[in-house]
Amino acid sequence: MKLPRIHIGRPQQLAALLLLFFMAECLWVVGRQELSPQDYRYARCGREMWERPSPLAGYFTTCGNLNGDGTFAYRVAGLPLTVQRLALLAGDKLRKPENRLYAGGALNGSTWEARHELSSVKYLLHVPFILFAMWLGAGLWWVSRRLFGNEGGFLALGLYCFCPTIIHASVAPNNDVLAMWGLYGLIYTAIGVAHAMQGPRRKWRPRIALLTLALGLTAAAHLLAAIIGFVAAILFMFYVAERRRSYVVQIPIFTGIGALLILFAFYSFRPAPFSYVFTGGGARFWFSLVGPSGFIRDITNAPILIAAGVAAILYLTVRRSRYFGNTTPLLMLLLLLPLQTTQTISSPWLWALPFLFTFIGGTFADALETRHRKLFLTLTGAVLVTQAILCLAALPSIAL
Question: Could you name the domain of life of the organism this protein comes from (predicted)?
Fold first, then answer.
């Protein structure tokens, strides 16, 4: 099997520069933050998941059964510290016996109590979430560029990289940024599977396996995001598959079973804590506009909102803008914005932002192909520059 050729041209280089700038923004914020009790909770519970779940009957960690909160963020936060602990164990064998931190292979006090032996704990906790946010940005650029060309892709990525809300979500351990990453990937992977079904069957299996992985990881981050993504993916696949719709019925069965196995693995294959996925209420929701209204009132998001308003007008008034590529992110945006979880503290409206940027990129790319190209090119540049300035000015407040 031949591996796909990877071509790194000027567009890929510019996208990488934008993502590196996004990373620099996040690292600047992290460098001015202090570790919070929430950071310690994610680190402690995540380390327990990797190293040894709590022996207490019915409990997965000393944090309890997490009451429907996804385990993905805890494992992401705890993994670097667990790796560092293993490195300390390996390096400890080179010390003299009287200077060792470990006696007989057992730790003398927890790693957290030996803070003087740890280095860059703050970055070990936060950088993995920044990397997932960068991964989402790369996926957003790839999808938007593939659908709308370079101009649409770079507008979507630019708004993403200079969105203070995205930066704020990326600089602290949380499941929302992972759910956002998983849900966006799940939707567009499902559409990719439906497109692949128009071709030879040898191309189906890798994409179906990727769809299963995306669904399982999304469920590990947030059950509601996985359910919404699963249902939406089936509907989009039915629409795209056309003559192969009879096969679409089978794919959700296999992906659902595989995703449950992945989710079971996140609970270390322990049935008791795994049962809380079904009884913890993590997927309970209602409707509220509190989250989106806060995003709208934030002056730093003004250029994004102006671009969104223009995109909505273009979609409603220009026929060429109303096609599947633009309608898909718009439907996901309208579906996610009014949702509010009732059992867990999360922000489903945040999951809608990548779809918002995709929608803006698509409609603006269509407008740039009309006789009004110069006008919309000026508007696009003004939106990006203004958003970048407001985002950089907001970084100190994000660090507080």
Answer: Bacteria
The answer to whether 263 and 213 have CB atoms below 8 angstroms apart is: no
For residue 304, how many other CB atoms are within 10 A of its CB?
27
Is the model's pLDDT at 344 over the cut of 90?
A: no
State the Cα–Cα distance between residues 154 and 315, nearest whole angstrom: 19
Q: Which residues contact 211 (CB under 8 A, 6 or more apart)?
A: 186, 189, 190, 193, 233, 251, 255
Res 228 pLDDT > 90: yes
SS3 13: helix
* Residue 80 parent element (H or E): helix 72-92
Query: Which residues have CB under 8 Å from 96's CB, separation 6+?
Result: none
Burial class (CB in 10 A: 0-12, 13-18, 19+), 191: buried
- In degrees, rounded to 5, the angle at the alpha carbon of residue 139 between the alpha carbons of residues 373 and 307 is 35
Q: Which 8-state DSSP code applies to residue 5?
A: P
Q: For residue 103, list its beta bridge partners.
A: 106
Residue 287 forms beta bridges with which residues?
A: 339
Lowest-confidence region among 134-148, 269-283, 294-308: 269-283
How far from 92 is each of 51, 119, 389, CA to CA, in Å? Answer: 18, 15, 48
Task: Tell me: pLDDT of 99 over 80.
Answer: no
136 near 184, Cβ under 8 Å?
A: yes
Summarize pLDDT for 3-25 with one digit per residue, the tens: 556 677 899 999 999 999 999 99
Report yes or no: 273 and 56 within 8 Å, Cβ to Cβ. Answer: no
**Local confidence band at 110 (pLDDT 50, 70, 90 cut-offs):** very low
Over range 170-184, report the average pLDDT. 96
Cβ-contact 259, 216 below 8 angstroms: yes
